[in-house]
Amino acid sequence: MKHYKYLIVGGGLAGDAATRGIRELDADGSIGLISMEPDPPYMRPNLSKGLWKGRPIEKIWRKTGERAELILGRKATALDSKKKTVRDDKGDEYTYDKLLLATGGMPIRLPFGDGDIIYFRDFQDYQRLRKMADEKKHFVVIGGGFIGSEIAAALTMVGKKVTMVFLEDAISALVFPGDLAHFLNDYYREKGVEVISNDSVASVQRDGDRLVVHTGSGRRIETDGVVAGIGIRPNVTLAQEAGLKIENGIVVNERLETSAPDIYAVGDAANFFHVGLGKRTRVEHEDNAVFMGKLAGRNMAGASETYDHVPMFYSDLFELGYEAVGEMSSKMEMVSDWEEPFKKGVVYYLEDGRVRGVLLWNVWKQVDNARALMMERGPFQAEDLRGRNKR
Fold first, then answer.
1. What's the mean pLDDT in 321-346?
2. Mean pLDDT, rounded, for 274-285
3. Does domain 319-390 have CATH number 3.30.390.30?
């Protein structure tokens, strides 16, 4: 049984950031990091962005091993919060003074196509898909949301033929205004992507060295590879079985402490109070993972700081790109302010007269202004917001 002053479960960006936060206040305290992945922590967003544009693989590593002892390829399977022990799937046990749960999320899987569908999430998935892309020509991407749209663009940019299949009537229709989402359908088609909207994938079957995708509407698509990006579910099993409070993730207070003493939680799996939204939520993006992880690390090492960061997120879709803050849903009231329709502009998302989200579409260096706007009480009308980003 090995003892660590600080034990971290999860090898993503939040876990790495925690090691940095700890080292800001404690230069010598022992840190252990247990990760299910065989690879050390890396910049996950590069898997669907930079690496497809030529970013060198060696640039993605976070050098976490300089600050912590890495226990890779292990899954934490049992937590005893009273005895302060964690056991992994190989039967090894670890004790701790402070524990961080940075367990992230697991891809939502379809009830078929086992082994044939790549659920794009980690570096191993990237390597598998990149090898296939080097050898094969045609890919089906399931999902038209955040990951699906990025992967479809990435594969197309390296010369592959891509067919997208998704349930909604347009790319990112759940978060973007209808006209912008439908513009993306046309934009992707101009780039050579076959866009199949309002359809589902009913089965994926192997036929020799190829795959056959059957859609709900009866389409039959022969392809070389199938990639799914249909969302994730937070990894809360370890925390739940240990008796921690769970409610759409692992519930934490303003200092990122869970309901059990000396246990913290961060990242995709953490349910926290979002000061910009005025409510509890989870955020599944890099910026939140990094800021949250670092603050939790500092608090584990003796600080008592409050998490009041308003996280941002971003995406690259061919030549288009955006940054955003807050909550974005096409069910909300939306105010679009286009400098050049669908090429450059801002979309504001409102609820009860308050700005709850801001989409900066090819508009840069305005994230802090968007954060400040979310903190204003309003109420706002459409005319109050149009032209605001140019002031």
1. 97
2. 97
3. yes
Which CATH number does the domain 2-106+232-300 belong to among 3.50.50.60, 1.10.760.10, 3.10.20.30, 3.40.50.150? Answer: 3.50.50.60
Whole-angstrom CA distances from 269 to 120, 215, 305 are: 18, 32, 20
Handedness of CA 67, 68, 73, 78 (dihedral sign): negative
Q: Is the dihedral of CA 284, 290, 295, 297 positive or negative?
A: positive
Q: Give this prediction's pTM.
A: 0.96
Q: Where are the domains of the chain?
A: 2-106+232-300, 109-228, 319-390
Q: Are 324 and 360 in contact (CB under 8 A)?
A: yes
- Res 248 pLDDT > 70: yes
Three-state secondary-structure class, residue 253:
coil
What's the CA gap between 304 and 227, in Å, rounded?
43
Who contacts 29 (Cβ-Cβ below 8 Å, separation ≥6)? Answer: 5, 6, 22, 301
Please state, for a pLDDT cut of 90, what percent of the chain lies above it.
98
- CA distances for 364 relative to 11, 196, 338, 359, angstroms: 30, 31, 14, 11
Q: Using the Cα atoms of residue 57, residue 59, residue 65 and residue 70 in order, give the sign of their dihedral.
A: negative
Tens of pLDDT along 129-161? 999 999 999 999 999 999 999 999 999 999 999
